[in-house]
Specification:
By secondary structure, the protein is an alpha+beta fold. Helices cover 39% and strands 26% of the residues. α7 links the parallel β8 and β9.
Amino acid sequence: MSRIYSSVQEAYEEIEREIVEMGLDYQSATYQDKDVEDDDGFTTKELRGYHLIIQSPDVDEAAVTVDQVKGSQGLKWLFAEHQDRTTTNQNPGEAWKIRREVWEEFLEDNGQFSYSYPERMAWQIPCIIKELRQRPNSRQAMIEMHQNHLDLENMGGTRRIPCSLSYSFMVRRGAMDGFYLMRSSDYYTHFLYDMVLAIKLVDFIRYRVDSNLKMGQFHMFIQSLHAFKKDYGPRGIF
């Protein structure tokens, strides 16, 4: 399933309708590292193999959309999380405290998460910037989030593993295109943040490679884009 959108707002609004109309119904077995097989709240509607394209995404418009949908606290978390991911190698970082109600339950006994985006991402960014400065036509500028030697041992809800698999960047005809690959995205809790953080990452790298580059197309491919009954039920739309 592939869709082209003109903006982040359009994508967010239209995708909810598509989940309603075309989502596959099933019962999730796990949620992060939690067993939810017997929890009716995790009855799931799912779009599989979802590919969206946003033509020339506007980072400011994306932030306004987050503010409208998630409120000022959500926007504050977005900027703090982007800061963590691009400047530190920390686990757990600082941004999670702004959405403590979402993230605190996943802290382990050592006070860290099983993984953090900052610790897996930040150290790779300088390599990507260097590659694209030296070889603008490169097809190798990719930030990898899934670490096989760790994550394959954590399947089945043993520990959390990344929902994001990779972020890739290509410079063509004076613009930078972004490609974002996910295995899983929770529409109501994380999808909008996932999308906008990826767009902000493309813009962050674009500016540091060459500030004269324009924002090109943004591609996002999600193996499982889903919504849980605990979230869609109160909305009364399913």
